[in-house]
Amino acid sequence: MVASTLALQQAVYTTLMGTPALITSLGGARIYDDVPQPAAFPYVSFGPSTITDADTATERADLHTLTLHIWSRARGRKETHNLIEHVRAALHDQSLTLTGHRLINFRHTQTDTRRLSDGETLQSTLRFRALTEPV
User: Fold this and answer.
1) What is the pTM (predicted TM-score) of this model?
2) d(CA 77, CA 74)
3) What is residue 70's three-state secondary structure?
């Protein structure tokens, strides 16, 4: 059986890659688990994830926190905010198909945006919460 965290990441990746507005705004299929060096900006990358036991007395379940990063070097924040909205719209409260698991819910919980010390790169961190159970 595929681990629930891997099944969730695969479903998120497939969903984002199948979102034409996001791919167009990125200038191509720039969604990475392992970011190539050098990478063209803007792009989306997978960040840290956590999984917590959410079992009940009768059912197995996993509670996930999944992090995505958006990286941009555009002047201002317009590009970044547009990309955030594309990612959020594609994932928040959507029914994603997971291999070997059922998604109970998937919710956007928080976004932070900051300019890095290089003075030109914006990094947005989007956090999502998901609850899954094995099928």
Assistant:
1) 0.95
2) 7
3) strand
